[in-house]
Amino acid sequence: MFTVLILTIACTVTHAEIVQNANMESLSVAPWHCHGCTASISNDSLNGKQSIMISHRRAGWAGIEQTVQVQPNHNYFFNVHLKLVNLVPGHMYHHISVKFKYTVNSHVHYVRISYSPMQQVSFGYQEIGGDFHVPNGVNSITIYIEINEAGANYLLDDATLQEITPNTNWKAEAQARIEKIRKAPLNIKIENHDNADTSDFKIEIKQVKSSFAFGTAVRADIMMDQNQKAYHDFVYNNFEWATIANNLKWRLMEFTQGHPIWNRGIPALNLLRSKGMKVRGHNMFWGVQHNCPKWILNMTSSDLNNAMHARIHGMMLHTTGKVEHWDVNNENLHGDFYEQRMSNPNITMKMFEWMRLQDKNMKLFLNEFNVVMDSSATTAYRNQGKIFKTSGVPIYGLGVQSHFHSVPKSIDVVKYRLDKIAEANLPLWITELTIHEVDENKKAAVLEDILTLYFSHSSIQGIVFWGFQDSSIHDHAAALTSNDIVPNAAGRKYQELFHKTWRTNEVHPVASTINAKGFLGDYELTLLHQNTVIHTENFTLDNNGANPTFHIRGTGANVLLLINYELPTDITD
Ligand SMILES: *[C@@H]1O[C@H](CO)[C@@H](O)[C@H](O)[C@H]1NC(C)=O
Ligand SMILES: *[C@@H]1O[C@H](CO)[C@@H](O)[C@H](O)[C@H]1NC(C)=O
Ligand SMILES: *[C@@H]1O[C@H](CO)[C@@H](O)[C@H](O)[C@H]1NC(C)=O
Ligand SMILES: *[C@@H]1O[C@H](CO)[C@@H](O)[C@H](O)[C@H]1NC(C)=O
């Protein structure tokens, strides 16, 4: 009785709404308050009868705000739906920030919660906002919205501000999800037709590949260097997917227009393929200006259009059938070079369409940072995924880079961000995982938590590290191995999870049925007689489970015939 009561109270507390007039349906705008602008009630709405219209903004900082009571050192999320009413002349879109301010010792501090770039009028109501941490000693904050161009007016509807309550049970819940979504029943039936004595027999269940992808970025030059066997072995023995870190990027391939370097990234790609590795293509375009080839920066839009088509054509010619994925326009929320230079706010959508025309099967991705490491682009990324999907853009999934520049302070907040991105209803891939932590034991513990959360998330299909070797990765404190490829505590933790915790390798005595449960993937099922292999069958365990049957014929020394799945006619009873 007592326990039930406590649980009920806890549930009620979780969903407490902290903003007032959250649905904007009150008779007046209050307690929303206009700072340097005019707020009025509008009959346009997302839900209900009305919204609040913000106009006559005196400056970029001017806009609507609300002061709310919060608790210091707690995590919250705030979001609101904003509809841009107009564009200021000369703009294709506006960038919208949500911020809060607070005062300590009469000093005002400003904190950005989220940044939603490239908002077009035609998008209609879009969720903006994100999560934030309330600093020590702060009990009251004022949430506000900023658009640099004062002439941009907007409507607001349906806001919410709630606490992200710590869940001390998160890991057990994640493990329960792993059991449910990453495993399936494997029921082996053994028909011992002649009642052979099976005490000397055993069945080995060996998982040889994982359906869930585990991968790493690699350096092409090291892959092609014969003297780097330890590096190669670590890649082949601990991962099933790879990303060429740099040598497929446009700027680094084609310093001079018309002279792409094909003999760096492509041979490494071929080598990885020959070893059975799957490869992500990274990246076709990257609209953060300093990552563009210099020679495109001042092109006319028509020359740039031709150069982009030539890039896609050449690249696809060399990689089609060899890479499973492409990151199409890397970090688009952080760089709009192509949108600006092409004067087309939807040029990234076009890139997807152009690539689809060249290859029907390639899985095409966006790939973004600051979506789980912090919340600045989380909601914007979710919205971009949704808009691409509903506009019919041939997008397959969202790449979530996951560069943790410091260890996350709260796993609940990381989960909140993941769940938010997953609302786009697209597959998610963790594409560039790094955890910056100098203390290898601490890094191992955080890595275990992060990987457990990721592996347990039903939208996530794969995790790719952004390298492992100390000297060859950008962020040395994120290394999983020393320069000579000796795994540190974090590397060993990863190996334990990949090879043991999340793999199925079992040996069973031969009984009439073996009821096992395995991680999804490819398997070898072997019947052994006194450690001699009698027969091996390969099969794939997918979500539906597998029910192979072995038929054993004969007895004694001239033992056994063993066939999986069905009996050939010559031995049918
Ligand atoms: C909403 O307001 C506008 C302008 O005030 C008015 O023209 C329109 O008829 C109203 N629509 C509804 C459904 O009330
Ligand atoms: C592009 O043009 C700008 C100004 O016109 C100039 O400063 C810059 O050097 C040019 N860049 C390149 C790569 O040609
Ligand atoms: C860009 O695409 C969006 C979503 O499909 C659409 O609403 C909008 O009108 C397009 N903008 C332009 C300028 O074509
Ligand atoms: C089973 O798979 C292994 C690789 O895991 C392969 O070497 C072998 O040839 C396969 N056997 C059959 C019967 O397909």
TrEMBL record:
| Keyword Hydrolase attached | yes
Record-annotated GH10 domain positions: 216-497
Per its UniProt record, what PROSITE patterns does this chain match? GH10_2
Q: Which UniProt keywords apply?
A: Carbohydrate metabolism, Hydrolase, Polysaccharide degradation, Repeat, Signal
* Record-linked InterPro entries: CenC_carb-bd (IPR003305), Galactose-bd-like_sf (IPR008979), GH (IPR017853), GH10 (IPR044846), GH10_dom (IPR001000)
Q: Tell me the leader sequence span.
A: 1-16
GO MF term list:
endo-1,4-beta-xylanase activity
Q: Which SMART domains match?
A: Glyco_10
Keyword check for Lipid metabolism? no
- Which GO biological-process labels does this protein carry? polysaccharide catabolic process
Which Gene3D superfamilies does this chain map to? Galactose-binding domain-like (2.60.120.260), Glycosidases (3.20.20.80)
A Pfam family it matches: CBM_4_9
Top-rank taxon of the source lineage equals Eukaryota
For this chain, the family text in UniProt reads: Belongs to the glycosyl hydrolase 10 (cellulase F) family.
Cite the PANTHER family for this sequence: ENDO-1,4-BETA-XYLANASE 1 (PTHR31490:SF1), GLYCOSYL HYDROLASE (PTHR31490)
Q: What is this protein called?
A: GH10 domain-containing protein
The species this protein belongs to is Mytilus edulis
